[in-house]
Amino acid sequence: MSLADTRPAAPAALPKLAPGRLLWPLAALVTVALVMAPAGVLPAWAVKVPAAWQLGLAPQISAFMKWLMESATFGLFTVREFTRAIAWTLDLPLSAAKAVLSTGVIVGQGADAVKLAPPIPWFAMVALGVAAGYAVSGLRLAALMGLGLLYLAVFGQWAGAMVTLASVLVSSLLGAFGGLLLGLACVRWRAVERAVAPLLDLAQTMPVFAYLLPMLILFGFGPVSAMVATIIYAMPPMVRVTILAIRAVPEDVRSLGVMTGCTRRQTTWKMLVPTALPALMVGVNQVIMLSLNVVIIASMIGAGGLGFDVLTALRRNDIGAGLEAGLAITVLAILLDRFAQGLARGAEGGAAGRSRRRLALYAALAAVALLWLLAALWPSIALYPESWRLSTAPWWNDLVRWINLTFYSQLEAVKVFFLLNILVPVKRFMLALPWPWVVAIVTLAGFRLGGVRLAAVTGAMTLFIALSGLWPAAMVTVYLCGVGVMLAMLIGVPIGLLAAANPTARKITDVAVDTLQTLPSFVYLIPFVMLFKVGDFTALIAIVLYAVTPAIRYTAHGVSQIHPALIEAGTMNGCTRLQSLIRIRLPLAAPEILLGLNQTLMLALSMLVITALVGTRDLGQEVYSALAQANVGKGLVAGLCVAFIGMIADRMLSAASGRLRQRLGLG
Fold this sequence. Notes:
Elements: H1 10-13, H2 19-36, H3 44-47, H4 57-70, H5 79-103, E1 105-107, E2 114-117, H6 122-137, H7 139-154, H8 158-188, H9 190-205, H10 208-219, H11 223-247, H12 251-259, H13 264-275, H14 277-293, H15 295-298, H16 306-315, H17 319-345, H18 350-377, H19 393-406, H20 408-432, H21 435-467, H22 471-501, H23 503-518, H24 525-532, H25 536-560, H26 564-572, H27 577-610, H28 619-629, H29 632-664
Antiparallel strand pairs: 1-2
Helix pairs in contact: 2-21, 4-29, 5-8, 6-7, 6-18, 7-17, 8-9, 8-11, 8-14, 8-16, 9-11, 9-29, 10-11, 10-28, 10-29, 11-14, 12-13, 14-17, 16-17, 17-19, 20-22, 21-29, 22-23, 22-25, 22-27, 23-25, 24-25, 25-27, 26-27, 27-29, 28-29
Transmembrane segments: 22-45, 57-79, 86-107, 119-136, 141-159, 165-187, 208-234, 287-308, 359-382, 402-422, 429-447, 453-471, 478-501, 521-548, 593-615, 635-653
Main location: membrane
Protein name: ABC transporter permease
C-alpha cells in the first residue's frame, strides 16, 4: 500500500454520514412534543393511549390457551394428552441423568421406594472430571476441573450442583442437536431459513420469563417445563452458528464429496459437519452457557438445583447462603465454559499426546465404575462427609452487616446522586414523550437508516407496543436500558481502547471479560441487593456490569483491526496521539463499536427482565407478575414488547453499522 493510498478522507468521511439530516428532524419532533405536553396543547389520546384503541390481546391469548388445554383435540387424543406425552418422553433422559449424578437409581415411590444404586460418588466424579479435562486439553484444564469440583463438595453445594449439571447437560445436548438439525435445514432450503430467521430473532430477544408460563401450562409444573423453556432460549445461537459454519466450509470439500460418489446425506454428515466441527463447538459452548444462565429462573417452575437454592436464600434474606449458591453456579459455569472451549480447540500435543490422554480417560472411566460399585455396597461413601464441609455464609452475612453499618451514608449518597441527577430526570423525560411522537421518531429513524422496509418494520413494532396497553412500562424499560447501555459504553469503550493499545492490558481485560461472561445474570444482583436494597439503582448497576463486556470486546477488536499504515500516515501528517484517536482510530472502528453497542443493548434487555425481581416497574415486572398470576396472555404480550424493543434496536444499529462500513470502504 502506498502512502497516497493511506491518505484517503476515510476518517474525515465519517461526519459526512449525514447525522444532521437524521438528528434535526428527530430533535424537532422531541422538542415540539416536550413543549406542547406540559402546556396541555396535546390532545388526551396523544398523552395516553385510549382504552378503546388498545389491542386487548392478553385476554384473547389466555382464553385460547385455556381452550387449547381443556377442549382442543386431535381426535384420538387431546392436546393435553399430547403435551403430557412429550413431557414424559423428555423426562426419561433428564431422570436418567439425575439418577446417575444426584439421586441414584430409585424404584417405586413414597414408602415403597427402593434405591437400587447410589449416584456417582463425589470423589469418583472429581476423578472423572480431572480425567476428562486432561483428555480434552491437558493438565491445566484437568487441574481446573479438579479444583472446581472439589470446591462444590467442600462448600456443601454438591447436591444442588449435580441436579443443575444434569439439567444443563440434557438441555444442552437436546438444544445443540436440535439447533444443528434446524441449521442444516436452513442451509439446504432457503425457504426454511427465511421462515426461521424472524423466529430466531424473537426467541433471542424474548425474555425467558415469558417462556415459563406457556411451558408450565403445556407441560405441567416440574423440571421438564423448565427444560423446554431452556432449550427454546438456548437453541438460536446454535442454529445461527451452524448456518455460518456449514456455509464457510471450502467448496473443495463439497466437490470432493461429489467426486467420491457421496450422497447428499453422506456429504453432510461425513464431510461438511466434521470439517465445520471446531466452529460448531462454539455454538455448543453458547448453548451450554445460556442453559446455565437460566437455571435460577427455571427453578421457579420446578427445575430445582442451585437456582432453587439461590431463590430460597433470597426469600429468607439469607445473603450468605445465596452468595454461596451463586458462587457455586459461577464455578460450574466456568468449568463448563472452559471444557467446551477445550472441545472447540481440540486436543493439543500431537497424536501421541492425544493417545495418552485418551488412555487416561479410559482408565478413569474404569476406576469410576469400580468406585460406583463400591458405593453400591457401602452407600455412605457416595456422599461428601458432613463434618468435612465448610461454609462462608456467616462470614458473608457479617461482612454485609459491617459494610452497611460502616458505609451506609456513603452508599446512600452515591445512590441518591444517581437517582436525583440521572435516573429520575431520564425517567420523567421518557414518560413525558407522547406515544405518537415516539412512533413517528422511530419510523423516521428507520427510514433514514434503512429505507421504507426498515421504517415499516420498526414503526409497526413501536405501534404494537403503544397499542398493547403497556406503554408506560415500555418507556421505563427504555429508560433503564438506555441509561445502563450509555454507562456501559462509557466504561467499555475506553477500556477497549486501552486493551487494543497495550498487550498487558489486553491480557488482563480478556481474563476479566471471560469471567464476567461466564457469570449467570442472576449472580450480579446478589451483592448489590445487599448493599443498595431493591430499586432502579440496584438494577442499573447489575445491567452495566452484565452488559459491559461486548462494549470492551468489540472496541478492542475494531481498533486492533485498523491497518497500521493508516495510523502511520496520520503520525507522518503531524497528528498527536489524541488526534489520531479521535480522527482515525475511533471513526474507523465505529462500525465494530456499533455492533458492540448492539450486543450491549441485547444483554441489557436480557438483564433488565431479571432485575424485575428487585422491584423495577418495567416490562420485566409485567412478565414476572404474569408468571406469579398464571396469566399467560399478559406474560406473552409483555414479552413480545421486550422482544420488539430489542429487535428495533438491533435492526437500526445493524443498518447504521452497515452504512458506516460502506462509507468507510470496509465492505
